[in-house]
Amino acid sequence: MRMLRIIFLCLTAAVLLFMSGLYIVVKSFDSSGFLSQIAQKASVRLGRTVSFGHLGVGLSSAGITFDLSPVTVSDDPSFTAQPFIKVDRVRAGVDLKSLIFHRKIHISGIILQSLQVHLIRSMGGDMNIRSMLSSNRPAEVTAADKAGLLQAPVAGTAGRIRISKPSWAQELPSSVEAVPITIQNGSFSFIDQAAAMPLDIWLNDINAKLSGGSLTKPFDLSLDAALYSKDPNVHLNASAAWDNAGRRLLISGLRLRADLSREDISALNGISPRLLDDPAFKNMTGVILLNIAHLETGLAASLTADGDLHIVGGVIRNFNGIRTLLSHTLGSFGWVEGNVVNLLNGQVKDKLNERDTVLEQGDAVFSFHDQTLFLDDLLLKTDMFEFKARGSVDRGLNADFQTMLHLNSDVSAALVHELEGLKFLYDDTERIAVGASLSGVIPHLKYKPNKDFRKRSKKALFKEGSHFLGILLGGGQK
């Protein structure tokens, strides 16, 4: 019994001595020279100025913690003098049990606090990230440099979480241990300087988690953020993997939910002045559900994707869609174009005087390749009309769509009751059908009825002869 007590006391003393020594080492650790060397090497290898602030080392119940603050990576000077990446604090935890008993460095997790990332695309289509990931790095890096980088705690951690490897890193180990990454209170901006329609999009209050993978295995991503809102209104889940051989990022099963009703409308003015010329866009509320089955992007800024989009509870405020559509589609009939309301009575007429447009259904199936968005099937449905479209939009926002508008049966019957000639616009379902093309640069699209509609319009105009013409010229009174 006494022997056991002595052994216990000796073990306790040894542990206390070890912990005391570790504490002294931690507190006396001088990181200034160490960080300076890493920053210089990282700057050369990335082709950007990399700077590190203070490295703090501490002990906790979970093990050893490394706090590095702040971390900045400069932008390509041809784009901006502002940082491309800035992190207020990077915290990495090292499991103490694994270090003591297995002599293995196990990073239990990485936390990036106030991460800021700014992506810019120039008018010529170049991205500010491309030069950093270029396969033609000017500096030669030796095997010793690579080994030294991997042995450094902070640099090794950074190497493990980097999404892509430039040419100098192709010989780094292809299999690394998965490290859970947490992003707290981050922000992301994307600025597109395209002449056709510049964009300035911001995501704030980003809280995200990456887990379950590594550079060679798929990892899961979960993200909450605020898109022009005081509170988080965007939620995203996806699986991703980096294909080092093809130098591309693969994303599958992406699910995004964005609640537009919680947006700050006044803040939307910063996205794009041209886009906000469209009253339907700036007054849109509801929930957008975006599903992308497959997305692939590479260093050459190429992007391919396919998926679908749905609008739930959609409302376009201060915009009467049916009145606008009727004015455009019945423009062939002269007087009717500006006096649609005078032709109708009852519930249908009341609908034309409503302030908002409520979407019962909004769906789209799309794909993206060759820098062009292809809409394979677009459907917008209200209680008064059904609008379908197919077509494409290129990077310059040049659009070309073929559309079909069906007025609901009660609206069609009400119009035909007042102007019998409009019955020639019926389709097989006894609904007024208007086929047309939309083309031009968004949002200023030109509307042109197709040949079939123009042919039927002529029949409608002349069917009733002088009686029909008298209705038009007489102010709509039969």
Please, could you describe this protein's structure?
- With 478 residues, this protein is an alpha+beta fold.
- Among the domains are: 32-209, no CATH class; 320-473, no CATH class.
- It has twelve helices and 18 strands.
- The protein has helices at 2-28, 32-46, 96-101, 143-151, 153-161, 279-282, 321-329, 335-338, 346-352, 409-418, 451-463, 465-473, and strands at residues 50-60, 63-74, 83-95, 107-121, 181-192, 199-211, 219-226, 234-243, 248-259, 284-298, 303-316, 357-359, 361-369, 372-381, 385-394, 398-407, 433-441, 444-449.
- The chain has an 18-stranded mixed beta sheet that branches.
- It is elongated, with a radius of gyration of 31 Å.
- The model is unreliable at 12-18, 135-176 and 464-478 (pLDDT under 50).
Oligomer: single chain
The poorly predicted ranges are: 12-18, 135-176, 464-478
- Give me the count of strands: 18
How much of the sequence lies in strands comes to 35-45%
Query: How many angstroms does the end-to-end distance come to?
Result: 115 Å
Sequence of secondary-structure elements: HHEEEHEHHEEEEEHEEHHHEEEEEHEEHH
Task: Please work out how many helical segments DSSP would assign.
Answer: 12
Rg over alpha carbons: 31 Å
State the major sheet.
Answer: 18 strands, mixed
Identify the overall geometry. elongated
Mean pLDDT: 75
Percent of residues in helices: 25-40%
Category from helices, strands and their pairing: alpha+beta
